[in-house]
Amino acid sequence: MTDLSGDERRAVEAQLFRLADDEYVIAERYTEWQIYAPTLESDLALANVAQDEFGHARLWYDLLQDDFDYTEEEVLWRRDPGAFTHATLTELAFADDGWGDAVVRGYLYDTAERLRLEALVDSSYAPIADRVGKVLDEEGYHREYAESWLERLASTDAEGRVQAAVERLFPHALTLFAPGPDEDLIRDYGIRTESLADLREEWLDTVVPTLDSLGFTVPDPEDVALPDARGRDGTHTDDWYDLHEAFTSTHRELDFDRPTRLRGEEA
Amino acid sequence: MIWEVFRQEKPGDYHKHCGNVHAPDREMAKLFAQIQHGRRMQTKSLWVVPQEEIGEVDDEDTEFGGTTDKAYRWAMTYNNIDASFQKEVAESEEDQREAAEAAEADR
Asked: pLDDT-derived band of residue B79, with 50, 70 and 90 as boundaries?
């Protein structure tokens, strides 16, 4: 337990939930590709990325439990779906012909993820700063993998589907940088050392030229209307409620006293 | 396209063949190999090699080591030096040392 003041504690919790929820929900979506990805190898690689993201979510949810006295049920299994603050990019169901969707989503997400983690390296909240390096080390592969696929899908028959995915996902990707209600506190207490506006600019400076050079057309960010559901403020698309229902169903049906942990998981 | 994968555990070790991956090119082969062959075991480095680039010769093509008795190649007897031979070796080494010292002194 920490002895943070009320406001500072709110700031740390808000940042941790943004981190944990993004990682958990995108991993939940990635796992849908198991046995369906284009080749066995690509299936294993994406499953491995999903495992990494689950691991990162675990890292942040554990910190909420260790330092702020939450239970695992409170942060995940029995939490109100309207209390989750992940970006809507992570929650959307895949389009029907969705491998291009998975590739584009991974690329947009992992690029933003690196920028955010780098802005947490010098977090005033030491337990966050301590854990960031570990996560960053694993994110390199994710980006390389997504970029590699993106290059291969450009100038192929799949190009049109990738373009459609870019158009569909781009507004939702912008919600990665949408503020939550405690954003000012996060900045005031130095929990994150860069503003969301700066992170958004840096992200655009990377993804727009990259997609452009591969022959894809990116909507002008100034003209893009953010989706009604922003994720960060607890508003979500219908896809989220379906996903939440699915991943919590086993826990509810089995009516455990508390979630089971793998042996050694808390080591 | 199939890429054969070779894994090295520690610096200085040989890369040992550990399986293969399907991949369209070298970059993807390296990405896939990391997950399939480098994730569960200690890994220092991986090589990926296009399967068709590997040359093979097998025991139907040739008689490895020839057909006549070449048991001397096994050279196992060096492991069993008896006491009298050990003495002989020690004396020989002593002679050589003295000869070397004498040659050094003459210079």
From this structure: low
Tell whether A148 lies on the interface with B, counting CB pairs under 8 A.
yes
Write down the pTM of the prediction.
Answer: 0.84
Q: Give yes or no for A34 touching B (CB within 8 A).
A: no
Q: Report yes or no: A15 and A128 within 8 Å, Cβ to Cβ.
A: yes
The rounded distance, in Å, linking the Cα atoms of A169 and A150 is 14
Chain B residues lying within 8 Å of A150, measured CB to CB: none
Task: Output the pLDDT for position B70.
Answer: 80
**Nearest CB to A48: which of B23, B28, B35?**
B35
A-chain residues within 8 Å CB-CB of B2?
none
Asked whether this complex has an ipTM greater than 0.90, the answer is: no
Q: How far is B56 from chain A (nearest CA, A)?
A: 26
Share of chain B above pLDDT 70, in %: 94
Cβ A148–B31 below 8 Å, yes or no?
yes
* Residue B45 pLDDT > 80: yes
pLDDT for the residue A196: 97
